[in-house]
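User: Hello! My lab partner asked me to get a predicted holo structure for this protein. The small molecule is magnesium ion, SMILES included with the sequence. Please write out the structure tokens.
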Amino acid sequence: MKITGARVIVTSPGRNYVTLKIETDEGIYGIGDGTLNGRELAVASYLQDHLCPMLIGRDARDIEDTWQLFYRGAYWRRGPVTMAAIAAVDVALWDIKGKALDTPVWNLLGGRSRDGIMCYAHASSRSLEDVIEQVQRYTAEGYKAVRVQCLVPGLEEMYGIPRAGAGRTGIGLPYVEQGWSTEKYLRFAPKMFDRVRAAVGFDVALLHDAHHRLTPSQAGWLGKRLEDHQLLWLEDTVPAELQASYRVIRQHTTTPLAVGEVFNTLFDCEQLIREQLIDYIRASIVHAGGISHLRKIAAFAEPYGVRTGCHGAADLSPVTMGAAVHFGVATYNAAVQEYNVHPEEASDVFDWDWGLKDGFLVPGDRPGIGVDIDEKAAARFEYERAYLPISRREDGSVGNY
Ligand SMILES: [Mg+2]
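Assistant: Hello! Below are the structure tokens for the protein in complex with magnesium ion.
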């Protein structure tokens, strides 16, 4: 089965998505997601200018060989742009293989370990009362797990919290800057969980994301303070470029730890997993080289008791989410999948068969990954340059976003 065409579709139905479509001489095509939030066109170019010409004439069945060709053959290994581009190719080829064999991708990955993958929703607000109401509403809808984030008193804007207005852009800046105080955050976060647990009880799993803003000792203190609230996980406490920093955190708290949504390969988390410094690895299909590489991360993590809790922000397109549902039901040590509802316009462009049932994401019964793209509709939503916000600490220096 020869690849006869490969093209990149950039579209912005509510937010930017980069989709790769691979066509074959048997009339079967597959799609993959290469969206890298805030750097979308870099991946589009990497695909269009470098990988697509190499795909033409290759056998679409040889997924592993194609992956190794693009990983080892480039000489410049790893990195978010490269790995998102490889992921787009990889998922499109798994989609083709499923369609060619008339079976869903979970069946190609060894069959089901479970019928659906538990997902978590986001309770995020500028007011704590509203956060509590959101948790109660999600629980009533059947969600088993909810991430809890609330604007820290004294801050105007914050990651993961809806903006008060259109957002503050600095003079002449195309991006938003947000002030940050770790001290204010650390005074507030434990009290937030005291209030939320008192209101919603312990039947719902709660998660929290510190967005890489703490030092290891601050993270240890926070984790220890939150132990009685029995979080499902405390996420992204410190940036993990220095994986050994998690040793310090681990020595001070038994709160389960998750990190890795920005990781691109197993090498970013090898020490974290091998030394059992984390409980959940957050790497995603789109940013960690596709289904093929995420499977290897999961297989490496399984004997160490580390489970996956894959990233699932709304910039991960319905294509990646479809692939993630197949991965989640097939992979033994897949524990939970982040889930954000996509912008309404996304359903004008993408058509998907996976769905939400009683707090679990379940695959449909289409062959492949079960997601399609309407290219005519995609053309109606032109790319819009957009940036993630920048964080500035109280002394004026740039913080971690
Ligand atoms: Mg995070």
